[in-house]
Q: What sequence folds into this?
C-alpha cells in the first residue's frame, strides 16, 4: 500500500504530540491515492475532494484514539470507503446532475457532460466504441454492491494485497478473493460485447 | 510465455484514469478543522442548516405523507383515549350514584354535585341497560323493583343522616360539658342498630329482586358493581 508505513507512523506520532505539520505531510502523501479511489467510486470531482478532505478532518479529530502502530493507510481507506458508501446511497435518494456524471438520453448513455463543455484542452482521440465501452464500464462498476466495488477498486487500482483489503473491508483474505471474483464476474456479464471488441482490436 | 492478459483488465485500466486531484486540499482541511473547533457562538449557520435539513426532509412527498398520516393516526388515538376516559369517569359516577341509591348506609360524598339518586333513577336505569345489556322486559321489571323499594331506601337514608347529626350533637356535648346522658345515648345506640338492620334488609331485598330478573352473567356483573354495598351490608353471599 505504501512503501514506508513507518513514515505514516512517524507523522501520526508527531500529530499526536501537537505537531500539526504531521497532518500536512500525511495529506501530501495520501491525498492522491485517496482522491483516485473516491473519484473512481463516485465519478464526481467535487464529491471526491469533499470526502477526502473529510477523511483528514476526522484523522485530525480522532488521532488520539489511534494506537501508535496503527496501519494508517488501512484506517484512511476504511474511513473513505464508508464515506463513499454513505454518500453514494444519499446520491441515489437525492439524484442530481453532475458535470462529471454521464448524461442519459432515451435510456442510452452518452459522453460525460464535462466533455461537452467547451474548454481549451484538446479533444479526446478515443473512438466512439471506446467511449461507449468506458461509459458501460462506469455503469457496471456503479451497479456493483459496495463490498465488491471497494474490493475491486482497491485491488486493481491501488494494488493492495488481499490482507490489506481485508483489513479495510473487515473481511478474511478468502472473502476478499471471493468478492474480487464475484465483482469481475458481474463486470464480465455486463460488459460482454465490449470485451469481445477489446479482444478483436 | 506470459499468460494472455484479461480483456477486462485492459478495459479497467483504460477506465481508471482519474482526473488530477485538486491542489487546495490542505487549506480546505484546516478551514474545516478551525470551524469544527470554534465555539458554538461562532457558528450561527448551525440553526439554518438544521432548518434547511428539515425543509429538505419534508420536501420529500413520501415523508410528508407518512408524517401527515402519523399525525392523523395519533389524533384519532388521542381522541379515542379521551372518549374512553370520559366514558369510564361517567360510568364511575353512575356506579357511585347507584350505590348510594341501593345502600342508605353509604355516606354521601362531601361537596358532591351529583343529583340525588331518586332524581337520577331514569339515567341510572339507562346506564344499567347499556352496561348489563338488559332487554326491555328485564328493564321494565327492574324499574318496577326500584320504584317500589326506592322510596323506603331514601327514607332510610334520610334517617341515617339524622342519626349522624344526632351523634355529632352527642360528641359536641361530650366535648363542651365533659359528660353525656348515658340513658339517652344508649337509646340512640339501640335506634341506630335497628336502623342499620332495616337498611341492610332493604338493600338485600332490592338487590335480590333485581338480580332475579337477570341472566347469570348479568347477575355476576351486577354483583361485581355492587361489591362495595354488599360488603358494607354483609350481604356478600347474595
A:
Amino acid at each position: 500500500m505504501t512503501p514506508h508505513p513507518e513514515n505514516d507512523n512517524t507523522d501520526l506520532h508527531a500529530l499526536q504530540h501537537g505537531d500539526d505539520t504531521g497532518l500536512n505531510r500525511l495529506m501530501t502523501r495520501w491525498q492522491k491515492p485517496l482522491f483516485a479511489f473516491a473519484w473512481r467510486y463516485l465519478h464526481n470531482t467535487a464529491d471526491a475532494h469533499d470526502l477526502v478532505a473529510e477523511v483528514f478532518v476526522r484523522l485530525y479529530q480522532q488521532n488520539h484514539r489511534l494506537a501508535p502502530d496503527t496501519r494508517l493507510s488501512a484506517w484512511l481507506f476504511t474511513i473513505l470507503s464508508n464515506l463513499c458508501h454513505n454518500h453514494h446511497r444519499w446520491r441515489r435518494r437525492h439524484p442530481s446532475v453532475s458535470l462529471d456524471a454521464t448524461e442519459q438520453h432515451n435510456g442510452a448513455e452518452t459522453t460525460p457532460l464535462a466533455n461537452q463543455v467547451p474548454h481549451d484542452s484538446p479533444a479526446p482521440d478515443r473512438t466512439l466504441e471506446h467511449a461507449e465501452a468506458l461509459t458501460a464500464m462506469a455503469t457496471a462498476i456503479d451497479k456493483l454492491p459496495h463490498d465488491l466495488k471497494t474490493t475491486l477498486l482497491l485491488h486493481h487500482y491501488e494494488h493492495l494485497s488481499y490482507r490489506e483489503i481485508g483489513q479495510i473491508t473487515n473481511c478474511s483474505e478468502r472473502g476478499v478473493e471471493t468478492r474480487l471474483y464475484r465483482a469481475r464476474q458481474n463486470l464480465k456479464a455486463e460488459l460482454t460485447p465490449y470485451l469481445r471488441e477489446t479482444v478483436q482490436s | 510465455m506470459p499468460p494472455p492478459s484479461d480483456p477486462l483488465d485492459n478495459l479497467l485500466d483504460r477506465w481508471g484514469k482519474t482526473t488530477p486531484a485538486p491542489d487546495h486540499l490542505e487549506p480546505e482541511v484546516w478551514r474545516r478543522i478551525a470551524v469544527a473547533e470554534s465555539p458554538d457562538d461562532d457558528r450561527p449557520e448551525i440553526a439554518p442548516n438544521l432548518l434547511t435539513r428539515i425543509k429538505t426532509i419534508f420536501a420529500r412527498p413520501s415523508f410528508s405523507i407518512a408524517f401527515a398520516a402519523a399525525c392523523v393516526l395519533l389524533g384519532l388515538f388521542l381522541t379515542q383515549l379521551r372518549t374512553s376516559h370520559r366514558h369510564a369517569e361517567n360510568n364511575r359516577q353512575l356506579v357511585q350514584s347507584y350505590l348510594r341509591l341501593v345502600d342508605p348506609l353509604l355516606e354521601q360524598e362531601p361537596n358532591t354535585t351529583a343529583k340525588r339518586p331518586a332524581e337520577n333513577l331514569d339515567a341510572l336505569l339507562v346506564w344499567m341497560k347499556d352496561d348489563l345489556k338488559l332487554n326491555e322486559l328485564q328493564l321494565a321489571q327492574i324499574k318496577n323493583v326500584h320504584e317500589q323499594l326506592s322510596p323506603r331506601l331514601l327514607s332510610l337514608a334520610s334517617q341515617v343522616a339524622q342519626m349522624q347529626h344526632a351523634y355529632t350533637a352527642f360528641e359536641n356535648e361530650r366535648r363542651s360539658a365533659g359528660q353525656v346522658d348515658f340513658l339517652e345515648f344508649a337509646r340512640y345506640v339501640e335506634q341506630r342498630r335497628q336502623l342499620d338492620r332495616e337498611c341492610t334488609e332493604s338493600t338485600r331485598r332490592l338487590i335480590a329482586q333485581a338480580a332475579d330478573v337477570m341472566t347469570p352473567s348479568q347477575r355476576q356483573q351486577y354483583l361485581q358493581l355492587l361489591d362495595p354495598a354488599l360488603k358494607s351490608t354483609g350481604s356478600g353471599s347474595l
